[in-house]
Amino acid sequence: MRKVFIGLIGLMIIFVACIRHWEEEWVGYTAPNWTSDNKIIFMKNHYIQKYEKNTLLGSVNQVGGHQEIFVCEIDVDGSNFREVCKIVDEDFERGPNYEPASTSSWGDWIVVTIEDTFPQIGPHDGRMFVLKRDGSNLKEVGRGLYADISPDQKKFVYQKFNQGLWIMNIDGTNSHPVSTDSLDGLPAWSSDGEWIAYVRKEGWNDEDLWIMDTIGNLKMKKRDGTTGTQPDWAPVDTNALVWVYIIVYLSDNTTRGISGAYLKWSPDGSHFVGYDPSRSIYVMRVDGSNKFYIEP
């Protein structure tokens, strides 16, 4: 019996010795947008995944990890990078729990949203955070995605899971719907504060650009599309939107193609900031020239 016991112990030692542990680290910079004084805000997604491999059996398993998400700011020339505030600092089991979804800033305020990674299938929900530009007054204000601050800094519009578009005060109070249609999403508040642009998902690969007033009474379709990203408004005197790969001029209903992805229009009207999943954040002129990457 003793020999059997010693043999089992030996097998266990061999089995444990065949298990190798390691970690893989990843850092990404996503969801860029402008501040009202022409700086760039974005989110830094930093996570470490832990793995183990049994060399005896040849199996590899992901055994958890840790994720951090920071709100960051940088000058348009890539200088003066700083981490404004950490909004996520937690362990995970299967993979990172959140993906950065959007940033928005006017004056002293920033609103950011992060998207639930799970479930993998179907519409996702998210978490919304409000904070000051100096990193103070951080507050989680509810569930939602793609929040965009009004120019008077008093409110923001956001997409509520399966419930359309809602508006909330900057302090997290008085959340109320402006559209209860679950097909409506990806809102953007106009630079003059009078309109909200949004994307209406009519069907598979059929998403159209609409605008409405800020109480949801007057709605107008402005552009048919195939699939859309969150639109963004030009400065007040331009009366235009950038959406997907086009600029839509609302005054005469004309359009112009532009090369880029996830574009946001600078407050002075001269540049776009965008996000390239393969290379991070970039800035270019509105005509598409002078493109350069910002890599903190």
Walk me through what this model shows.
It is a single chain. Mean pLDDT is 88; it is low at 1-16. The chain has one domain (18-294): 6 Propeller (Neuraminidase). The strands form 6 sheets. It has a 4-stranded antiparallel β-sheet with strand order 1-2-3-4. It has one helix spanning 2-17; strands at residues 19-34, 40-54, 59-74, 82-92, 98-106, 109-116, 126-132, 139-143, 145-149, 155-160, 164-169, 176-179, 184-189, 195-203, 206-213, 219-223, 232-233, 240-243, 246-249, 254-257, 264-265, 271-276, 280-285, 292-294. The chain has 1 helix and 24 strands. It has 296 residues and is mostly beta strands. A hairpin with a 3-residue loop joins strand 22 and strand 23. The chain is 5% helix and 56% strand.
Describe this protein with a few key phrases.
296 residues, mainly beta, Neuraminidase, four-stranded antiparallel sheet, 56% strand, globular
Short description:
This protein starts with a helix and ends with a strand. The chain is mostly beta strands.
